[in-house]
Amino acid sequence: MIRFSQVCKRYPGGHEALQDVSFEVAKGEMVYLTGHSGAGKSTLLKLIAAIERPTSGSVLVDGHNIRAIKREAIPALRRNIGLVFQDHKLLFDRNAFDNVLLPLQIAGFDHREAARRVRAALDKVGLLQSEKANPIALSGGEQQRLCIARAIVNRPDILLADEPTGNLDAEYSSEIMNIFKSFHQAGTTLLISTHDQHTLQEFPARILRLKQGRLQETSAHEERPC
Amino acid sequence: MLTRMFEHLRVMRATLRHLLSTPGSSLLNLLIIGIALSLPVGAYVLLKSVQQLAGRMVETPQISVFLEGDRSDGQLHELQSRLERHAGIARVEFVPRDAALKQLQGNSGIADMIADLPQNPLPDTFIVHPKATDSSTMESLRKELQSWKQFDHVQLDSDWVRKLEALLGLGRLATAILAALLSLALVAITFNTIRLQILTRREEIEVSKLIGASDSFIRRPFLYFGLMQGLAGGLIAWLLVSASLWLLNGSLQELTRLYASDFRLHALSLPDSLALLAFSAYLGWLGAWFSVSQHLWRIEPR
Question: B143 or B69, which is more confident?
Answer without folding.
Answer: B143
